[in-house]
Design a protein that fits this description.
Structural class: alpha+beta
Largest sheet: 9 strands, mixed
Strand content: 25-35%
Distance between the termini: 32 Å
Mean pLDDT: 89
Order of helices and strands: EHHEHHHHEEEHHEHEEHEHHEE
């Protein structure tokens, strides 16, 4: 990863404007797929995470609104991972989360928005110039108001659990109620958001949502396992082994990114070279994301302790699929979204790099189309 510190105000604003557009496209795409898909909660859970991500970058936009200017209340530049993910460094999200803790205290100590606006009007009328300090104070207040509202994408986003229809599973025998578990992290080693989904078969005597002790232990377990260095198979087998009455039937992991943009990133690969040499104006970008899926193909009884036994999930890992096998997954799917102009100009070398990825194109009127 390569750290780039953006201190130029125009660059910072342009980055967040472009990033906001891209995330909005992802939200539109997820919303449409949720409407068209089956009622399994998958797309809706992803949509919620994307909305949280959008709110996080709305907050960072306010924080760095006057970056590089004398009156900015933030003294440091924005830190970006320009070489790998194209996202802000993990420390940016961590600092935002720390700011959230003290948001209400900061707001109580500041003049309210109405007072600041009136002070700005008085300053302009009196001095006939821009009230830079008051403008920065207004941005600071807006930032902390945004944080006080909550609902952002944090470093660690705790699991949510909802009961779902058993028909969402492709196959397999169920022992109890079926739940969809969703959680997410901002991965510190990759500097990018990662979303986890698990379909869980609960065979316990007491439903997990009513069993506070078991629920707390399960949540702590999966949060501690939320590392990109761990394979999906390792995470699922860990739950299956450590919780005798919880059986992961399916898992998904979504790596959001990287973002390619000739204005902000320097990946150094074929796609970056292509975007850099072509003239697409403000549409010179491409974003990819990877979906890993792990599916249990059957259950069998295994020894537990000296005399006991418990169900064990057997997961399908296709040895002929190198990408899936390396990820400890049943399959690995790559998807990309790009403007129409970029799609029309892709050559054979670029398509080879995309490697049969599912392509989404932003067409006229910003409508996202799946090809």
């Amino acid at each position: 990863m390569t750290l780039e510190k953006l201190s130029d105000n125009r660059q910072v604003r342009a980055y967040f404007f472009k990033f906001g557009q891209i995330v909005d496209h992802l939200i539109d795409m997820a919303a449409r797929e949720n409407e068209e898909g089956q009622d399994d909660g998958f797309d809706l859970a992803i949509l919620d995470c994307l909305k949280r991500l959008s709110k996080t970058f709305d907050a960072l936009t306010l924080k760095y609104l006057f970056a590089g200017l004398d009156a900015c209340w933030v003294e440091k530049p924005l830190s970006l991972d320009v070489k790998d993910s194209g996202f802000p460094f993990f420390t940016e999200i961590l600092e935002m989360e720390n700011d959230r803790v003290q948001a209400r205290k900061v707001l109580e100590e500041m003049p309210d928005a109405g007072t600041l606006r009136q002070d700005m009007v008085d300053f302009i009328l009196k001095y006939k110039s821009t009230p830079h300090d008051l403008r920065a104070a207004m941005a600071k207040r807006a930032y902390f108001q945004n944080l006080a509202g909550g609902g952002h994408f944090y470093c660690r986003n705790q699991p949510t659990i909802q009961r779902i229809n058993p028909d969402c599973l492709p196959s397999g025998e169920l022992r109890g109620a079926l739940y969809l578990v969703t959680w997410s992290v901002y991965d510190s080693s990759r500097n990018q958001p990662v979303i986890y989904l698990m379909v869980l078969d609960d065979s316990g005597k007491k439903p997990i949502l009513e069993d506070e002790e078991r629920l707390a232990a399960f949540k702590a377990h999966i949060m501690n396992q939320s590392m990109s260095t761990l394979k999906l198979l390792t995470i699922a087998q860990g739950v299956d082994k450590d919780f005798a009455d919880l059986h992961p039937k399916m898992m998904k992991r979504l790596f959001i990114g990287p973002i390619y943009s000739n204005a902000f990133t320097t990946h150094g690969d074929r796609l970056s070279h292509f975007l850099g040499k072509s003239d697409f104006g403000g549409n010179s970008w491409l974003m990819s994301w990877t979906v890993e899926t792990l599916i249990s193909e059957r259950s069998e009884m295994s020894k537990s302790g000296l005399f006991g036994s418990q169900p064990k999930e057997i997961y399908h890992i296709p040895t002929e699929d190198l990408a899936a096998s390396a990820s400890g997954a049943t399959r690995v799917d790559r998807r990309v979204i790009m403007p129409y102009e970029v799609r029309q100009s892709l050559g054979s070398e670029e398509w080879r790099v995309l490697d049969n990825a599912q392509v989404y194109v932003v067409g006229e009127d910003n409508i996202v189309l799946r090809l």
